[in-house]
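Render this sequence as a predicted structure.
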Amino acid sequence: MENLQPRPVWAHFAALCAIPRPSGREAAVRDHLLAWARANAIAARVDAAGNLILSKPASPGGADLPGVILQGHLDMVCQANAGTGHDFEHDPIRPVLRDGWLVAEATTLGADNGIGVALALAALTEPGLVHPALEVLLTVDEEDGMHGAHGLAPGSLAGHYLINLDSEDWGYFYLGCAGGVDIEVEQPVERVPMPADRVVRRITVSGLRGGHSGLDIHLGRGNAIKLLAEAVRELAGQTDLNLIELAGGSARNAIPREAWADVALPAAATAGLAAWAAAKTAEWRTRFAAGDAGVALACSPDGTAATGSLAPAAQARLLDFLADARDGVAAMSADFPGTVAASDNLGVAALTGTAFRATIMARGLADRQTDGLADAIVAQAAGHGLAARKTGAYPGWTPDPASPLLARCRAAYAEHFGAEAGLRVIHAGLECGVLAGSHPGLDMISFGPDIRGAHAPGEAVEVASVARAWSLLKAVLGALAQP
């Protein structure tokens, strides 16, 4: 990144890549930024929730103008391909430059939202930049429930305008977003001794692309957990099968890419497993030819040794629930053509010991849609004899097409780039809805560069669009510095 422009933005992003920052463990990156702020005489404080708030007075003559808040989040989604050995608690992100894009090949990159953070930080020290009073709000734990934004105390911010820098499509201003809620399924399960004539095999689903559970949910990609349940249930219908353990997915807001189950079978039934797995792989590759043609099913003797498996009734309920669970697009928007209005994602599932747990994330542009979808999922789980509850709800951000900030931003974009910016709402969770609750009256907008594959290995950001986003941010701040 040393030769990329604009240099101040990429220097900050390089520092973020060097410091591990999973959700809930942002202390190291926050300490780095506190030291940077002190070195640059920038006022900084950490609130009770762990959010970092930086501030800088207005340029001369701008003290009476409405202040501007630049907002992003410090944490990143941590996803790596199996076998990479990457430790997100200790290892830096190692991106490469390819065809004008900065890419993390085997892990997530953290451009979501590291690039937005870098843009905001660069604005605080840009020589000659004319601006109103600036505050930079960098929240924690955004990707795991927006706990930092929820914990921001009313009155923590003085600004009137808020520019969220957590969008991922250049050339658009976002003026609304989906809300979300998690559905936690947790159920004790009964185990019984296995017959002595069984052999253990591991069934693995791999090769899927995954992706952001909101932005990519409409692309028709496979969900590894659901495909695993489909395959194991099918195999159980063909032979006497005992389910021992299973696991899939690692984040509620990422489409699961990999999943596995350990099963016990009669020794005679193992002879046809390879052919069955090959046929199932071919079937799936036809089904997902447009979006996930690399999907694969494999069987191997790598399963754990075990003396017990699920009781038959518990096994049937669990496999039926996972195979039948709602997942994907639930409704499209009537107001914003081509935009998903409601969806859900079976993001994590695990059967270990005597407990089964799963997390499903529901999203909706209207809070009533989100809640209704979540209620339907809870009812579906109950229909399979599983206990489920809603948790971690956060509100959506209602669009305001008459926003004065939107008008100023659109004018700055047109003047600077000679074209009109598009308008969108996003089927993902931005923190704007939460911040509107603690700071009513904020006038908000969101924009950012082109980021592809967020929440999945291979995440990439287009270098040229970062430069354009930086130019736009400076132009907007300059426009807001005028009465």
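Summary. The chain has two domains: 7-178+396-480, 181-394. The chain has a mean pLDDT of 95.
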